[in-house]
Design brief:
Number of strands: 13
Shape: globular
Number of helices: 14
Strand content: 5-15%
């Protein structure tokens, strides 16, 4: 019997190893042993480029059904605003998540600042098409009734303003309150309707997930938030959005918070390599993958690939640049319509990589400007992050951008990590 034990163990070894190699969920926010990870950044309502990106990554077939097997897909937020079809994208991702799980894969949707803005009523970037997607047969009557209530409220609480309304006030009002506006707010805003479909969907999203030591988050993790658990960050965001306080909005509007922070992407207040190391150690990750700060069409590694930017301006509003990040073990790749490239793991390899990306998309003038900017920066200092001025103007959470000479307000008081020069 003892003589048979070793052969039996040897026969069992491949099967045992296969079992051990299966992806395993550590907790609600962390996974290990995932064979392949694909991450995509901000979509902003562009369904066609979203689908093109999924097809490029081999995740869906022509009918849009999951073909990614046990791949984990991470979408880092900002599905709504600036584009016409966020509802269609979210509906597809819901179906895709079910199909992926049946195949052994997963779809992880994260919260972006634009999901949060739609909840608390910052509608600066909602397009007319987005409102119209909520309009129905009775939208005209609903709009009329809402306008009557607005006038009644103004007459009661601000009679002077009511008395001075211009003759064309209704026409001006309808620019910001088109058909579908009321239905949009009932679906998105918990204050209007706590059971609204998109309010509940957004409140169910996570702020960040960790897969194979890679942390995925929309904006970034600053020094101020690096000691927080992923669960606590998500719980705080959900509570703030469900009970939004306009006088004290909290983390969901904090420029240093995970929905808005740009310091890992080279925007002021820019993180230093030492600070990035400190943040990674405290969040138990080897890399942070972020969206939010767009590039002109390139998956961009910073700090020797310890930070990777994946918002390539997929949406038409930003140029329509579909691309994805792929992580296979220790190997990183960037997928583009023209092909897949290995992502450089050292900063001094990025210029050659950028030239390869430009060769795949030679008509992209933004990429060429970006290449010149990076080359100039590399002559005098670290070229981590995206050079200011090369990208479209970004929205803020209601405060002005910090200038390069301003103190880094995203540092803890006790932090000694220097700001980048």
């Amino acid at each position: 019997m003892k003589r048979l034990l070793l052969p039996i163990l040897l026969l069992c070894l491949p099967a045992c190893q296969a079992i051990q190699a299966q992806p395993r969920q550590i907790d609600e926010y962390s996974w290990e042993g995932v064979t392949r990870i694909v991450a995509i950044g901000d979509i902003h309502g562009d369904y066609d480029h979203y689908m093109e990106t999924l097809r490029l990554a081999g995740l869906v077939n022509r009918r849009g059904r999951w073909t990614g097997g046990d791949t984990h897909l991470v979408q880092t937020g900002d599905i709504p605003d600036r584009g016409p079809e966020p509802r269609k994208i979210m509906a597809h991702l819901d179906k895709l998540a079910q199909q992926a799980e049946k195949a052994g894969g997963r779809v992880h949707r994260l919260m972006g600042n634009h999901e949060a803005m739609n909840l608390y009523g910052d509608l600066r970037y909602v397009t007319i098409e987005e409102f119209e997607a909520f309009a129905g047969r009775n939208s005209g009557a609903i709009q009329d009734r809402y306008y009557e209530l607005v006038l009644q409220d103004m007459q009661q609480n601000d009679p002077e303003a009511f008395a001075s309304l211009p003759e064309d006030h209704r026409e001006q009002w309808e620019v910001d309150h088109p058909p579908g506006f009321v239905e949009h707010r009932q679906a998105w805003d918990p204050a209007w309707n706590p059971e609204g479909e998109y309010a509940l969907r957004t409140l169910g999203l996570k702020i960040a997930v960790r897969i194979n030591g890679n942390l995925f988050v929309h904006g970034g993790i600053s020094d101020l938030y690096a000691d927080r658990s992923l669960q606590s960050l998500t719980s705080q965001a959900r509570d703030e959005l469900a009970n939004f306080n306009y006088e004290n909005p909290g983390m969901v509007e904090d420029e240093c918070g995970p929905l808005w922070y740009r310091g890992l992407a080279g925007r002021a207040p820019q993180a230093s390599p030492e600070l990035v190391d400190s943040i990674l150690e405290r969040i138990s990750a080897q890399r942070i993958v972020v969206g939010h700060t767009s590039t002109p069409g390139v998956i961009w590694p910073n700090f020797d690939a310890r930070v990777v930017q994946i918002d390539t301006g997929m949406a038409k509003h930003y140029g329509g640049n579909p691309a994805y990040l792929e992580i296979n073990g220790n190997d990183l790749f960037a997928g583009y319509p023209g092909g897949k490239l290995a992502l450089p793991l050292r900063d001094d390899q990025r210029q050659a990589y950028l030239e390869q990306v430009i060769a795949l998309d030679p008509d992209n003038a933004g990429l060429k400007r970006f290449a010149r900017s990076i080359a100039e920066l590399a002559k005098g200092k670290s070229a981590n992050g995206i050079a200011a001025g090369d990208q479209p103007a970004e929205e803020s959470a209601g405060v002005e951008d910090e200038d390069d000479e301003a103190p880094n307000l995203c540092l803890r008081e006790e932090s000694t990590a220097p700001a980048a020069l």
